[in-house]
Amino acid sequence: MRIGLIAPPWIPVPPPAYGGTEEVIDNLARGLAALGHDVRLFTVGESTCPVPRQWLYWSPAEPMGDRFREAAHVLAAYQALADTDIIHDHTELGPLLAGRRGMSHPPAVTTVHGPVIPRNRRALAEAARHAAIVAISHAHARSFGAIPVAAVIHHGIDLDACKPGPGTGGYLLFTGRMSPDKGVHHAVRVARCAGWPLVIAAKIREPAERAYFDQQVRPLLGPGDDMRAEQPLAARVELMRHAAALVNPITWPEPFGLVMAQALAAATPVLAFPNGAAPEIIDHGRTGYLCRDEDEMSAAAAHIGEIDRRQCRAAAEQRFSLDRMAADYERLYRAILEHPGRVTTGRTGTGAP
Q1: Given 42, 142, 157, 319, which is the most exposed site by the fewest CB atoms within 10 A?
Q2: What DSSP line would sit under 252-317, residue for residue?
Q3: 2-156+321-338: CATH topology
């Protein structure tokens, strides 16, 4: 198949630091190419993903989220990829604009990477008229309500880039955005109560992220805690490999949670609140612990040594590889091409519904 992938215009693919969506797109492009498909990626010129690439903007579009810049990017992408068999769009505006303009283009798939909330529900319902929608977890799919979801496909990660580690560093780890949604303040209190040093490697770029850190996280940090700057993937993986556990006390219904799958690949158990897709990623008592509150999580930290790290790696290999993700999308593309104009609701993927 000739497959056109469209990435958002905000971050190169793969990302130089934080960028979960861009990590997934890079993995998918390489996975589909390994299956023998002709893959082209419309992205920004600074991207280094090893498939043929096209772009409108050489550098990431600024300011991030500017709808005029995104619209120009996606319209150029649909034009550039018009000769492919199928377009897989990872932007927010792409399917909506392409359908509303009425321009001719190949069948389209769109993976929704963000939450379904009141302000985007109407746009998603319209996009579903023009593209097959993919949710990234079963919890995510349930939030779509009456909006048709063509498939549920869990993200896949590069297992070669996430090697298993010994977990002998003597610390717990938090990595992600510096946001109350990610529960960094919970992670600090849990580590303190459980008697573990905490290493934090977090993205702190936006004013809201800095304000949250200054007001709610910094006052909690002690002399044993290690606050690091935002780290590229390889450095984050090294931190995971040597951590006793990843602490992921998310406070919102996160659609997936790539960091948890990466931790499992590094053979590192996960302590998480059971929100969003966490129960689809973590097997309680086998690859980590799902905890109702800080007290439960602090108590669970005393039992992380009972988790067999080999089971964590095995779970990642069986359920969260980029090969599995690419094969899931390949099946969806074929189903769409075999039945043009008909998008049926399905459940593809490895998570329990």
Answers
A1: 142
A2: S--S--HHHHHHHHTT--EEE-S-TTHHHH--BTTTEEE-SSHHHHHHHHTTGGGS-HHHHHHHHH
A3: Rossmann fold (3.40.50)
Per-residue pLDDT at 343? 52
Q: What fold characterizes domain 172-318?
A: Rossmann fold (3.40.50)
Q: Would you say residue 101 has pLDDT above 80?
A: no
345 pLDDT above the threshold of 50: no
> What is the band of 351 on the pLDDT scale with cuts at 50, 70, 90?
very low
Give this prediction's pTM: 0.93
C-beta neighbour count of 92 within 10 angstroms: 21
> Which helix (DSSP H) or strand (DSSP E) does residue 69 occupy?
helix 67-80
Helix/strand/coil for 174: strand
The separation between CA 264 and the C-alpha centre of its own chain, rounded to angstroms, equals 14
42 closest CA partner among 25, 18, 67: 25
Cα–Cα distance, 124 to 92 (Å, whole number) = 9
**Cα-to-chain-centroid distance, residue 137:** 11
